[in-house]
Amino acid sequence: MAETKLVKDQAKEGEMLIQQLLENHFDVAAAFWVLHSEKEDWRLYLVSKSAADKGNGEAYQQLRSA
What we know:
By secondary structure, the protein is of the alpha+beta class. Helices cover 47% and strands 21% of the residues. The chain contains 3 helices and 2 strands; from the N terminus they run H-E-E-H-H. Strands 1-2 form a two-stranded antiparallel ribbon. It starts with 7 loop residues before the first helix and ends with a helix.
């Protein structure tokens, strides 16, 4: 398996996304990076109650706009 590293740019962009979501009053209870070994790429996962409170469609729209 090839070594895949989370680079500083990805980490910084994830941090900026979370900050923007918080400024937009989007609940972010937790966030974490997961390495998908088959594709050898990193994915940022967010844990939020906004989807339950607002519905998936509105929550995803807020996420995309951030």
